[in-house]
Every structure is written in structure tokens, then in C-alpha cells.
Amino acid sequence: MSAMTPESNHGEDGVKRRDFLYISTAAFGGAGVVAAAWPFVHQMNPSADVLALSSTEVDLSGIEVGQSLTVVWRGKPVFIRHRTPEEIEEARADDAADLPDPQTDAERVIKPEWLVVVGVCTHLGCVPLGQAGDFGGWFCPCHGSHYDTSARIRIGPAPENLIVPPYEFTADTQILIG
Amino acid sequence: MSFQTNNPVIKWVEYRLPIFSFLHHSLVEYPTPRNFNIWYQFGSIAGIILVVQIVTGIVLAMHYTPHVDYAFDSVEHIMRDVNYGWLIRYMHANGASMFFIAVYIHIFRGLYYGSYKAPRELLWMIGLVILLLMMATAFMGYVLPWGQMSFWGATVITNLFSAVPLVGEQIVTWLWGGFSVDNATLNRFYSLHYLLPFVLVGLVVLHLWALHHHGSNNPLGIDAKAPGDKIPFHPYYTVKDLLGFALFGLFFAVFLFYLPNALGHPDNYIPADPLVTPAHIVPEWYFLPFYAILRSVPDKLGGVVLMFGSIFILFLLPWLDTSRVRSAKFRPIYKQFFWIFVIATLALGWAGSQPAEGMALIIARVGTIYYFVHFLVIMPLLGWFERPKPLPKSIAESVLGGGGQAAGAPASPARGKA
User: Is the pLDDT of residue A4 over 70?
Assistant: First the structure.
């Protein structure tokens, strides 16, 4: 070993063979650290049992026109509202209004009389109060976001409309959320 | 006067691990400026409260259950059934507030006397990291009782990260370990709440190391050079700090025994309900100015950026402040702006406690603008336009009345100087 001093291994460009060894060792070690770190990062993501609870079936037959039901899906409230004809009318009329997060009412419902949205304010996650606020939809008491009858954000700090979760009608008055 | 002993055991240890001379050097002979006033008590007070928090916290952990179904009840079990549980929990809960009171005074002291300036920039920055870590620890601790404010505070604060572009939602899900604040969240907060105070201890050691390397700043803001400028830490400041502990302990005791819930929120005695948000969510008092900044911006990302920016800007302060003079005592204009800044911060705190509308919102917006103007405009410009008063020649001369006012040339901005 002592016979091979690093100086004797200079290339034309001044790069030593030792430099290659240092860099490849560091790269190898670095990749190993990243690979070893991933399980410790990923363990904080939702576990299998949490993911298994990710769909909810709801029977809508008992909800009269003008009534709402709040169900829990993935630990979050989901608002299911049986909208009145006036509310549907208003929501459609506002399609052309000045919307911070433009979406037509038709894009937000499968059947117009049933509005299904995640009841979590898109600002910082509070649960908005139903049939309140300036637009007859929802109002978030935490930081004052107003949502309309299609649960679209109209005024306030929330950047997006209340999220429509993935759902489908499994029967005429039955939906599967998730 | 270096460390001396005739005790053979101490000698034996000292030869192998020079810990006694280290402690003697740091706590006994450590030369300290002779002119500390009352505002220099709060560093050691903060340190002692960190110890109180760790001791009471370890005890509480022996009785607490970090599970969504049991957490609330286990806290009530501590309050009602555990021997002296009420005392220890109230010490811990109010101790958090006392910690912030001490640390905030300590920080304002540093702002007033220019303790963040060369060569103490790193000392200042380590202190800010301590502040950030304290905030994280306090926030996670407040979640553990699993009351309504715990749950919704956790929801709102973790949702701040959803403002991050592109990966915001993934970050929040990762923080929660689910799709909402739930058992996984409670467990990890408990784990981290237990860990972080010990990280704080490590940072405090670094903070003191940096402090002792160049020595403490002092109310005059001038370097201690003359022979009489400094006195040994013991007995002079050990005694002074003990007096500080006693007085602050009385203040603490008033809250602990007579107003144990005054700094908390009654909603947190309602068990967490993921389907009902309390009408008015307020964080603990020590977060209110930052909360006001968050809410003063009518844009989610903008509010979050400004809120974090309000602390990160303090990291730049040593360079934003262009004045060569440290202490506000000799800075007639900065002194006034300092107090306006204090008022602005208190006004922000008040605005943060109110619903974000009307007058409170206006005050929050004015306060937010002023907060940033103070650091980004006033501090850099003052160094150029302010004419400081003449500095005394030495601490000893000033303290002992040697007519220090006449000495020293008016200082100009630090351009070209370190």
C-alpha cells in the first residue's frame, strides 16, 4: 500500500484515482442511507387497516327533500344533501358567476338532487356549518369561507370548492363512497 | 482562579475526565459582565422551566394513554385519581405558558440590546431553532388531551402544510398517517412530544456553548475589555438568578394554584368530535400573533408563507440590522421603533384571539405589514440615518460613574466593518 502514494496516480487532468474511490464510496453510502431511510419515512403514511376503511355505503331513501345527512368516510364527514329545486336552480344560475374555483353544478353532481361533498373546508380543514353563509350553502366558522348551494367557494380564504368524493349509485337510492 | 482540589476522588476523575474543571469554568469562574439588569434573568428562567417541563412530562407519561378512545379519560384520571396528578398536570400545562413568557421576554431583551449582532449571530440563530422546536413541542403537547381544541387545533395546523404546491395533500396525509387527524396522528405526536424536549436540551447546550465562547452581551452593548468589566458567575449571578427563579416561581404559582385554566380554553374539556368544529377556534395564547398573521392574508398559501416568514425573518436580523451600535440605549430612534414593534406584536396577539372580521382583521393586517416593515425597511435604514449617542469607554467606567458620556465617537453604519 505504502508504495502506491496518491500522487503517483495522477491522470492528465489532475484527477486522482483516490478521488474516484472517495466519490464512489460516498455515492454508494449515500444511496444506502436513502434506501434505509425510506421505511422510516413511509411508516408514517396510512397503514393497511386505515386504507381498508376507505369506502362507505349509504342508503339515501330516508332523506327527504331539503334534508342533509352527514356520514363518515375515511374519518372525515361527508355531507349528503337532498337539494330543493330552488337550490338546484340557484346553483345552476351561479355557474356563470365569478367563481374562485370555476366548476359548473353539473360537473359536481351525478343526480342534480343529490349533492355529495366532503364536509371539510378546503382552507384549513374545519367542518363548515350547513345552510348558512351568504350563499345559502355552507359557512366555515373558523376563518369565514362561504360556500354556495353547489358547495363551491364564493367568498373567503378557502382556495377550492368542497371536494366531491368519488362515489357511485349502486341502486336508485344507494351510494357507495370511495 | 482555576479549578483546585485536594479531594482524591475528584482528582482521580478529573485526571481521566476533566468534568469538574469544566463545570467550574462554566458555572463558577465564568466571567460575566457586571452590569446585567433584570431582563437578563430570563435565559436561566427558561432553562429551569425546561427542566420542570421534562420532569412533570415524564411523570404524566406514566399515567397517560395515547389512544383516541382513552386519551381524554386518562387525562381526567390524572386530574381526579392519580395522587397529586392535578398538580403535576397543571404544572405542565401552565409551565408551557411560563416557558413561552420567559422565552419571549428573553427574545425581546435580545432585540433591545442587540444581542444578535456579531459575534453572536449563531447564538441568536440557535435560539430561534429552540423557539421553533418549542412551538412544535407545545403544539403536539396540546393535542394529547384529545379535547375539541386539541383535535381542531391539530387539524388546522397540519392543514397548513396542504398549502404547499403540488405535494401538499400528500404531506398532510403523511403527517396524519390517515385521511384525517386520528389515532395514528395522536400516537406519533405523543412520540415526538416526548422526544423533542431532549433535543431542546441539546440545543440549549449549543446555545450556552456559543454564549460562553464570546461571553454575554450586556445592557451597554459594548465589549467587556477593562479589568473591572466582568465578575465571576458565582456567587454574583448564581444568587441573582436564584432571586429571579424565586420571583418567577411566585408568578408561576399564581397561575398554578389560582388560575390554572386561565391560559387554556374551556372547549378542550369537551372530548374531541371529528364531526363538529367549535364555533371559534383559537390557538394557545403564545401562537396568537402568528395566527393573526396567517389570517390577515386572504390567500391560503400567502398566509402560510407570511406566518412562517415572520419567524424565519428573525434569522436574517443580524444582517438586516446595519447599525454598528448594539444596545438600544444608545440608539434614540431604534429605541422608539422597538417599542412600536412590541405594541404591534401585542396588537397582533389580540387580533389573533378575535374572530377574523371587522376591526380585528384591520388591526391584524396593519400589524402584519408593520411587522415586516420593521425588519425589512426600518432596521436596514436606521443604521444609515440614525445618529447613535456616544458609547461609554468601558462597562466599569459607565457603572462606576467615570463620566463615560463624553467618551467615544459617534458610530456610523457598519459598512466596511465587521
Answer: no
CA gap A155, A138 in Å, rounded: 11
User: Which residues of B have a CB under 8 Å from any CB of A?
Assistant: 152, 155-160, 162, 173-182, 184, 188, 274-281, 295, 297-301, 303, 355-357
The residue among A143, A154, A161, A177 with the most chain B CBs within 10 A of its CB, best to mutate, is: A143
Residues of B in contact with A124 (CB under 8 A): 155-157, 159-160, 162, 300
Tell me the β-bridge partners of A147.
Answer: A138, A153
Per-residue burial over A112-123, b = 16 or more CB atoms within 10 Å of its CB, e = otherwise: bebbbbbbbbbb
Contact by Cβ (8 Å): A170, A66: no
* CATH number of the domain where residue B270 is located: 1.20.810.10
pTM for the full predicted model? 0.87
Count Cβ neighbours within 10 Å for each residue of B103-122 and write b for 16 or more, e otherwise. bbbbbbbbbbbbbbbeebeb
Domain that holds residue A20: 6-42
For B183-197, the pLDDT digits (tens) are: 999 999 999 999 999
Coil, strand or helix: which one is A155?
strand
Q: Which of B229, B231, B217, B238 is nearest to B124 (CA)?
A: B217
The chain-wide mean pLDDT, for chain A, equals 87
What backbone phi and psi angles, to 5 degrees, belong to B227?
A: -60, -35
Whether B276 and B297 map to the same domain: the answer is no
Give domain status of residue A78, yes or no: yes
Its ipTM equals 0.74
